[in-house]
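Team,

Forwarding the record for the chain on the shared tracking sheet. I've put the sequence and predicted structure together so nobody has to dig through attachments.
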Amino acid sequence: MSNRYEVPEGSTAPLDFQLRNVTRDPDTGIETESEFDATGMTVAIVVRDRTNALVPTITVAWLVIAESKVRVSFQAASLVASLGPYTFRFEVTDGAGKIHKYPMSVDPDFFDVGFAA
């Protein structure tokens, strides 16, 4: 399931996210989410506007690596209302080079961009 986050156009305030692994019990089908220790892993964010163009001016860094918390930073021109909504997904690369994508659902998350008052 994807999430939507409202961001005012021109905002440079960072946003913090908790990345979680999702596991499904094979007997009950119940899914559980849990944080993870990302020590030794790298994180990236892939953001695309409504035309599917990449947005390179948005960056991500570990905030608390042992708890898989990240901080996303924006430049004033990163998100423009007329190009939204923006899709995004985090990519975590482990020490073996395997890429894990968050959210772990089929659909990405969204930045809905509005005009600042």
